[in-house]
Specification:
The chain has 325 residues and is an alpha/beta fold. 45% of the residues lie in helices and 20% in strands. A five-stranded mixed β-sheet has the order 3-2-1-4-5, with helices on both faces. The chain has a five-stranded mixed β-sheet with strand order 8-7-6-11-12, with helices on both faces. Strand 2 and strand 3 (24-32) form a beta hairpin. Helix 3 (111-123) crosses helix 10 (292-306), helix 4 packs across helix 5 (177-185) and helix 7 packs parallel to helix 8 (263-276). It binds adenosine monophosphate and magnesium ion. Adenosine monophosphate is lined by residues 134-135, 161-162, 164-165, 176-179, 182, 257-259, 261-262, 289-290.
Length: 325
């Protein structure tokens, strides 16, 4: 079953194509909005409007190389939310237009579930504990005893990626800030104490940002602050992850989202997993950050659940995006 997925919840417009029966990711291209000063929602929308067609053309050209066209797709899947309305509606429009033009079934999927499910598919894990760390999101998630995803802990304010980006902005580093902070952190071993806030199973990260800015203005070295930011914020996250693992007794652990590319975070995760006898696995970053392939895979899962035999489905396009955009 050939599924095309469209991602547009925030900065990324991505398209992925998966041969779902064999779990083969055939195509995964994206274009990313980058703005050092944060996201201007009007500019974000303009970005998606002016970039979606180039990715769509690439998808069409790819399909040609395997002697197929959009009409050979079995399903169009798109990110229904959570996300930013300005960008979500461009992906939804693109999906709906393809569906109408080629008479294809369409499905809107949950972006967060898509992050988790592609992680499971690519690691082969059956029932892992997840740490989902992106620009806006910081959540510790796993399936509960009823087989439903449950958030065991999360940030009460900003996402960890946004924390890194905001400190990077204060320090005059380019967007995205995470990779630059990781590089600078490698140059230091001088830990400067920072606020460490855990509230039950939730975390608070917003206080770190002004604290770091103040220390920067007081002349602390940037590499020391980058090192301390990583050590503090990752320790906060891993403490809650460890509690969640102890509570649920999960035996597998994966990190998903853009911050998953951070090697220091991965190192801490491996240490915790070793102590707790939990298996750790990672998968290519291309699929851990926002991308179209994960949306295609989630569309397949949801559609399969909705109808046991998807091949019998009539190609009747439907759309239900009101609640999210
Ligand atoms: P996403 O929203 O999942 O696409 O992830 C984007 C976020 O990941 C941005 O806030 C980046 O700063 C952050 N990020 C990317 N690479 C790294 C890294 N190596 N270390 C920390 N954060 C990172
Ligand atoms: Mg995401």
């Amino acid at each position: 079953m050939l599924v095309l997925g469209i991602e547009s919840t925030a900065h990324t417009f991505g398209i992925g194509i998966i041969e779902c029966d064999t779990k083969e990711i055939l195509f995964n291209e994206k274009s990313q909005y980058k703005e050092a000063q944060g996201m201007d929602l009007r500019k974000l929308q303009e970005f998606h409007v002016s970039n979606f067609d180039s990715i769509l053309i690439k998808a069409k050209e790819f399909l040609k190389t395997i002697n197929k066209d959009f009409s050979d797709l079995d399903l169009i899947s798109f990110s229904r939310g959570p996300g930013i309305g300005n960008s979500l509606k461009i992906g939804a429009l693109c999906a709906k237009t393809l569906s109408i033009k080629y008479n294809l079934p369409i499905i809107g999927v949950n972006h967060i579930k898509a992050h988790l499910e592609i992680g499971k598919m690519l690691t082969g894990f059956k029932d892992p504990m997840f740490l989902y760390v992106s620009g806006v999101n910081t959540q510790i998630i796993a399936k509960d005893e009823f087989g439903k995803y449950k958030i065991y802990g999360e940030t009460e304010d900003i996402g960890i990626g946004n924390l890194f980006d905001s400190f990077a902005r204060d320090a005059g580093l380019d967007f995205p800030g995470g990779p630059k902070i990781e590089k600078l952190a490698l140059k230091s071993k001088n830990y400067i104490e920072l606020p460490y806030t855990i509230k039950g199973m939730n975390v608070s990260l917003a206080g770190l940002s002004p604290n770091l800015k103040q220390k920067l203005n007081n002349g602390e070295k940037i590499e020391d602050l980058c090192y301390s930011l990583q050590e503090t914020s990752f320790a906060i996250l891993m403490e809650v992850v460890e509690r969640a693992i102890a509570y649920t007794k999960k035996k597998e652990f994966i990190i998903v989202g853009g911050v998953a590319s951070n090697k220091r975070l991965e190192q801490m995760a491996k240490e915790i997993c070793k102590i707790r006898h939990v298996e750790y696995n990672s998968f290519p970053m291309e699929y851990a950050m926002d991308n179209g392939a994960m949306i295609a895979w989630q569309g397949y899962i949801d559609r399969k659940k909705a109808k046991n035999n998807i091949k019998d489905l009539k190609p009747t396009p439907y759309i239900n995006i009101e609640s999210n955009i």
